[in-house]
Amino acid sequence: MKIREMEIPITHISGVGPALAGLFARLNIFTVSDLLTYYPRDWEDRTQRRSIAEFSYGKVHTAASVVSHEWFGFGRMKTLKIIITDGTERAVLICFNRPFLQKMLPVGCVISISGSFSFRYGEIQSSSFDFLLLCEKGSIAEFKNAALPDSAVYSIYPLTTGLSQSQIRKITAKAILNYTKGIEDEIPSELLEKYGFFNKQKAIQAIHMPKSAEEAERAKRSIIFEELYLFQKSIIERAAERKSGMTAPAQKTVTLKKDLIPLLSPRQKELLERLPFELTKDQMQVIADINADIDAGFSNSEKKNRPFYMARLLQGDVGSGKTLVAFFAALRTIDWGAQCALLAPTEILAKQHAENAARLMEPLTGGTEKGVRTAFLTGNVKNKGRIPLLQALQSGDIDIVIGTHALFSKNVLYYNLKLVIIDEQHRFGVVQRNTIIHKGRSSVVAAQKLKTQNILENPALLMMSATPIPQTLAHTVYGDLDVSVIKSVPEGRKPVRTHLTRAGNEKHVYETVRAELQKGHQAYFVYPRIDTPDVPEETPHNEGGSPAKDIGGIQRKNTLKSAEQMYAFLSQHVYPEFSCALIHSKTNEDEQNDILRLFYTNKIQILVATSVVEVGVDVPNATCMVIEHAERFGLAALHQLRGRVGRGSAQSACFLIYGTNLSETGTKRLKVMHKSTDGFFIAEEDLRLRGPGEAEGIQQSGYLTLGLADPIRDKELLHLARKEAERDFYLNSGT
Ligand code: ADP
Ligand code: MG
User: Fold this and answer.
1) Domain 250-486 is in which class?
2) CA-to-CA distance for 370 and 138, rounded, in angstroms?
3) How far apart are CA 523 and CA 501, in angstroms?
4) What residues does each domain of the chain span?
5) How confident is the model at residue 699 (pLDDT cuts 50, 70, 90)?
């Protein structure tokens, strides 16, 4: 059985009751398959000892005895310090919220201690440690040479509140014991041998419960290779399928409006006439190419030739006007009498597209009696509105539906869906992209059973992205697609000016923004998190144990500003004279809509947000983008966020405020932003700067999401997978 087919509910594993299942559900783990493919994000190697004296080389793992207990702080804030020694050095365990450790670890006991230590305030400290009691009263000498009983490599999983590492480890261990026997390999066994990869069963066991750090690493590489290999295989197959037998249309070069007009269908002509601006050269060319593709799809199927399916990736920098191109593609399809679906990654973006589509397309009749019928569908459109909408889609009374992934849920059937447009496609991930194509296909097949007419099994696909994949990877990642690029930006735009500001100097930025607001413009303020968690994170920081000083002395790691906190601060203390609003992914949909509407109409001047505004908000009057803790965002995200301004004719500015302890690469990344506004250049630099592990702590920017694999970090494995998948394909196809 393939691992993904193990759809046994996790409640079948002994020890998983409803409460635990509920916690796992928060991590999207419902089945044994989900659990076994919930990979650790890291491992902690406790097979080797490391003494306290060697703490600066990595995590300490040693036998130590408890020397004494001390306390600092008062009342509820009182915190226990346990002083230990392993014979090399003394160290201090800071026991935040764990006063009970005083009784558990009495003076004189011996423990196995594991954790990271650092030198602070004249002592070696740790506040994140694990221990195992070895004996209540004894000497460390007894444990000097023998392996400690908790010596092993421990998996570290991404957690959710209420679920601990050891719970996940325990349940995963049971699943491994009971269910991994029959796991099938999905790649040829010669490859496993040739490169020394584990077979699937062994890889799954070893990634969760490795015997050594090397074994964990090898398991990880094996799984990454498999992902990349399967991915490459599907790309090669699809590319071959598209190239053989399907007659790709001839492309015409179009540079002038007068060359484009004769190529347009009635509704496309109407839209062109109504536009208040001229299309850019690249927009015209792409529209011509897409027209040729779509026509080939319809006319080939009429002639009973092997149909041609468009599969095109449209890359164009933020603000280059891709939406309009998508609307032209939709109109072409509608003029052929078929349906389109436009998929967006967020509600905000979907809503915005739906409103634009209604405004721009509904009046277009193309000489018939009816205009374009548009609809908006997300998971939040509930029964009352949903049922008639689904019926209308199925009976062909809707021409274009716009929404989130709800568009492709099981119960959504189409009358004749011939074009699927995916906006910001990099946000969906490759696997999801396949699912969408598949669902698009099966929903049409379902409609066919209902005896509707004119069925093509594959809808044409137009994917759009402002996050260009670096050229060096494009072929491998998008090898099955035709790629169009919009390089020219609409006339009259001025490049956004980017300023780098060190944290501490925000005042300057706030004042510059005020001047813009006073001119009638608007601003965004973006923060890396929604709110400030109230649990103290484990950063020890106390002034040498003197209680009086320590009350406020426990510095919490939550120095990261949050959108909520800064909304309160900015609206009350900095800009009381302007109206501010707060928006993030937890803001409910109605409220989001209200806020955005008010922002569009300049009733709100300042939008405080998280990266939810990264895509889709298009307000030309906004001229300032302030991003605090900019080092926390990936380059692709920063570029997208900056693209929210500079959409009108006024000069816009982006302020990147960065923390004081910026890493070397962090500095380089921000310099790239300062230097360039070219998305393609930024993508290449991102690739260059992202060494292995570099992405950690930075919000994933992701060009495409696989499981464990990251095509950028794992580019060597990607190329290897490509080579092997190609060879396999040609061997099997006999060429
Ligand atoms: P993106 O490529 O980032 O998706 P959009 O499609 O959102 O860009 O377009 C950004 C803005 O530019 C929109 O307000 C759109 O109406 C406008 N726009 C699109 N094409 C042109 C053009 N040729 N000339 C002027 N403005 C344009
Ligand atoms: Mg867009």
Assistant:
1) alpha beta
2) 89
3) 17
4) 48-151, 250-486, 497-701
5) very low
Give 488's DSSP letter.
P
219: nearest Cα among 233, 231, 230, 205: 205
Question: pTM for the full model?
Answer: 0.70
* Ligand 2 geometric centre to CA of 620 (Å): 14
Please name which of 341, 375, 379 lies closest in space to residue 358, comparing C-alpha atoms. Answer: 375
* Cβ atoms 674, 498 nearer than 8 A: yes
Residue nearest to atom 5 of ligand 1 (CA): 321
Q: Is 647 in the pocket of ligand 1 (CB under 6 A)?
A: yes
Given this chain, do its domains 48-151 and 497-701 carry the same CATH topology? no
- The whole-angstrom separation of Cα 312 and Cα 295 is 14
Q: State the SS3 of 249-276.
A: CCCCCCCCHHHHHHHCCHHHHHHHHHCC
CATH topology of domain 497-701: Rossmann fold (3.40.50)
Neighbour order of strands in the sheet with 606-609 = 497-502, 653-658, 622-628, 522-526, 606-609, 580-583
Taking 3-state DSSP, the helix, strand and coil percentages for the chain, each rounded to the nearest 5, stand at 40, 15, 40
3-state secondary structure of 81: strand
Which residue is closest in CA terms to ligand 1's atom 9? 321
Q: Which H or E run includes 134? A: strand 129-135
Segment 3-17 mean pLDDT? 90
Q: Which CATH code, of 2.40.50.140, 2.60.120.460, 3.40.50.280, 3.40.190.10, is assigned to 48-151?
A: 2.40.50.140
Q: Report the length, in residues, of the chain.
A: 735
Residue 280: CB within 6 Å of ligand 1?
yes
Pair of tokens at residue 453 = 């007419």
Q: At residue 354, does pLDDT exceed 80?
A: yes
Nearest CA to ligand 1 atom 14: 618
CB 200 within 8 A of CB 185: yes
Contact predicate 561/630, CB 8 Å: no
Residue 726 in 3-state DSSP? Answer: helix
Q: Which of 275, 324, 353, 423 to mutate to test the pocket of ligand 1 (most atoms within 8 A of CB)?
A: 324
Distance CA 458, CA 416 (A): 10
pLDDT at 718: 87
Please report the pLDDT score of residue 700 as a whole number.
Answer: 42
Report which of 116, 146, 150, 117 is spatially closest to residue 131, judged by C-alpha positions: 150
C-alpha 630/C-alpha 659 separation (Å) is: 8
489 three-state secondary structure: coil
